Amino acid sequence: MLFFAFCPYKKPKKTMKRNLLVLLFTAALTFSCSSDSEDDNNTENNSIIGSWELSGLEIDSNTAGDELTFAKGIFDALVAGGCDIITFTFNEDGTVITEVRDFSEAGQDLDPSGGGLIITCPENQETATTNWTLEGDQLTFIDEGGIEETITVDIDGNTLTVDAEFVDENNLADAEAVFTRK
């Protein structure tokens, strides 16, 4: 049973956790405009500066499988309840702070009234700081070990969309993750 396909934080190894956070960060914040001019690059970088919160999971309900549909339902319930599942804060100095809820400690309870699962937002949150660069629509994250991960992002005003496969490649391959500027 899929509880949280997009948050596989079951106490991974430190390196795996770091790589996952880099992937999440990369997935969340790359631009869709490209330019060869240095001024345009500064404009692109400025448009990503700020805090971005995961606010939506978009799926094609005609082609999505049961597990992806179930994951979206859980996600929607958590977001509606005010759970800030993933937040990226891009700073002008080229650092990004990633905050991710730790779902490895989250429990699943059945509603005694028969209404389904009781879904709660975990209290624990993991935080990591990495570096970032943005060239056109390519966002690169560089962790403290020098490992680079690049993703493609689409920024439209205060909305950033990425392939949700970067959030969880095993369970969200046919979805898009939507982040909203806070």
Helix and strand composition category? alpha+beta
Task: Tell me the helix content.
Answer: 10-25%
The order of strands across the largest sheet is: 1-2-3-6-7-8-9-10
Q: Please give the alpha-carbon distance between the first and last residues.
A: 32 Å
Shape: globular
What fraction of residues sit in β-strands? 25-35%
Q: How many beta-strand segments?
A: 10
How many H/I helical runs? 3
Order of helices and strands: HHEHEEEEEEEEE
The description of the largest β-sheet is: 8 strands, antiparallel, barrel
Point out poorly predicted stretches.
1-42
Mean pLDDT: 76
| Rg estimate, integer Å | 16 Å
Question: Would you kindly provide a written description of the structure presented here, covering whatever features stand out?
Answer:
By secondary structure, the chain is of the alpha+beta class. Helix content is 23%, strand content 35%. It is built from 3 helices and 10 strands; from the N terminus they run ααβαβββββββββ. The strands form 2 sheets. An 8-stranded antiparallel barrel has the order 1-2-3-6-7-8-9-10. The protein has a two-stranded antiparallel sheet with strand order 4-5. The longest helix has 15 residues, at 14-28. The radius of gyration is 16 Å and the shape is globular. Mean pLDDT is 76; it is low at 1-42.
